[in-house]
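Supplementary material to the annual report.
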Amino acid sequence: MGSKKCMNEKCCGTTSLDLKRGWSLKSGGFASLCYKCGSAYENSVFCETYHSDESGWRECKTCRKILHCGCIASKHLFEYMDVGGVACISCVKRLEIQSLQPMQIPNIISGGKSANKTSSQEAQPILLGLKVDDETRKLLQMSRAIGSVPPAVELEKEESVIRYTENSKRVQSHPQNGSSSVFAKPNYSRPKQGVKDMYESLALASLKFSLTSHLASSSSVLAIPAQGAPVPGGMVESNETSKGSLQHGQKAHHVSPKPPKPIPAGSEANKGSASQARVPRPPTEGRGSKHLLPRYWPKITDQELQQLSGDFNSTIVPLFEKTLSASDAGRIGRLVLPKACAEAYFPTINQSEGIPIRIQDIKGKEWTFQFRFWPNNNSRMYVLEGVTPCIQNMQLQAGDTVIFSRIDPGSQLVIGCRKAANNTDVQEPQAPPSLNCDSLGEASSSGVNDTHTSNGGQASDDPQPHLTTAEKKKARNIKNKRLHMNNDEASELRVTWEEAQELLRPAPSSEPTVVTVDGYEFEEFEEPPVFGKKTIFISQPSGEQEQLVQCDSCSKWRRLPANALLSAKWLCSDNIWDSSRAACSAPEDVSPGDLDSSSLNKENKKQRCTESAASKGGEPSGLDALANAAVLGDSVADAGDNSAGATTKHPRHRPGCTCIVCIQPPSGKGKHEPSCKCNVCLTVRRRFKTLMMRKKKKQSDREEKEKEDSRAAKEDIAGMALLDMNNPGKETGGGGGNGDQTAETSRGGGLDLNCDPRREDEILAESSAAFSPVDVFAGQNGE
DNA sequence: CGTAGGCATGGAG
DNA sequence: ACTCCATGCCTAC
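Predicted assembly:
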């Protein structure tokens, strides 16, 4: 495979066959370019055989992008770069190799967009050296053989030395002539990420090297810090070698045993299973994968890679990965692509609208996304649009990782995923941690997925096996952002949680211990609660309570004893109380119409509830009242009270809704005993407690604020406060006030059934004159 | 009013 | 000082 010739007869290289692949085409594919003449050859037919063995990455002197890779062409490119020639396929502005004499130092090379930023700062070449002697080479080769040395630090046969100065200067020395070419990074005036990456890379090498140093403890060396120069992450220690490494041929000494920034892959490597080591793989070829942060390096095990390659019967080239942010995984469906990755591995786009791009998932299913960008601060922000279906298909959420790979030949892009090792950081507590992309099934390898985990690989040993430091930070970020929810969001969650509580049932086997708190009795259970099937409690005219439950299979409603405890999933066949109804084929206990109509509107329902309860002489309250409204009441209404007319108020109220509105009892009726332990009373007490706390807090806040503001425009402020009182929760004060009032008045002083539950509570808190849980019912009921 | 698109902003590195 | 990018915000539909 590797032996290719440039077909351009005028190519300066003539017979040499050094083509560099990775030039993206508008078609979405990639071309190979002769780095000498720039001739492009579609179909990436070159170099495949070299990728695995000769990968490495270099920085283009012109554009500063990381030209990478593993192909032999890039290695040659590197060599030419060493002698001053630059054939960067990324920046296009190639310097003819012949135009420079060997070792002519292209100190500042024009071309890169940041080239103009360079210049003046000619830092002394304080070096971070990477020097290898034969012994080291053997060691590294061994390490590489077991997968513990990232390609990023793989060796060149010529033992080129790559060094980085403190100020991001890069020095290369070439062993063949013993001299060095020094060229400044265009914007080395600031510590650039790319340099940090380099540091990390070297640090990684150092770490891994040290991890494998038992193989040859006496051998030489890797990362050598500069003279007193602090090395990011403190991964290497200063050493005299730094001076030595200035001069080619001088051996660097010594490996710093001090681990660099924790790069978990390293620790994995330490586990010895090379093929399963989740090693961050440095950028494969791609135009200008410059400064591709290690966090984006695809972390995939050799085993995964092999398996996936096998699955696809092709060569899989992991490109990059990204941990999904909240917005990536959100409903907007926009996945922000790291700029460097987008520019390196995706087709070049010139229009903001971008292009549709087709990406396969592991199953071979093809997704089409819109690959586009937005102008952003003189730069671009690349996004993939329309990813929601794919994300959902893979059941990914924030904190999980998507991995982009490429299938060769053909350059088909593949998207895979890796679930966060511990979703509890960012996900709901009940979500079990998962390492697999369920939707991707077993074929999760190839960097595209986490096959090894599904194969019972080593990941299970390591709580956070594959997370890089950056990822952990990101995870923390996500976590923090989640924690930094504003009050509104928190309220939303509270509501959800309260709703969830309605589904909690005591464990069947557990007996409650009754404790009294503030005069209220609570049942405590030894066993954790279980989620039960949501049911509707109803009261028979006889006063007997029942509950209605809907079959998860046929959706028919069944009447069950009130004390029946149901699992979250319930089928007719589970009806042990009524064998005649223990099959889906049995007629429904309650007509669907009753239930459907019950979801119409609350106001109607409330009225119906009142009417039906009154007419039946019962004293339903709370959930019972709701249930009656939902079932019996609706029946009544359907039979004779359709004239009431449906409104759109409070459409969320449905059978089983336990909001404070729905569970209120009819006016003047249904007062329970203070010690009543029914669901309604417990719920009300709980809510009452919350209300009081909020009220107190709100009052104190308000008082404080009023104290501050009272000096200025007292009357106006008072007016505003009055408005606020009238419109609690309204951020925009004035406008809606009258309308709301009118609405409420028209409902006879009742509640706005459309109101936000949070507001609902506030209204309750402020409108309830008497603060007994039971009176909360009555108080809001227009009495 | 809800949603989506597009851009702006600001924190982090 | 600068870039990147997560997310907020505004506007149009």
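The longest strand of chain A covers residues 366-376.
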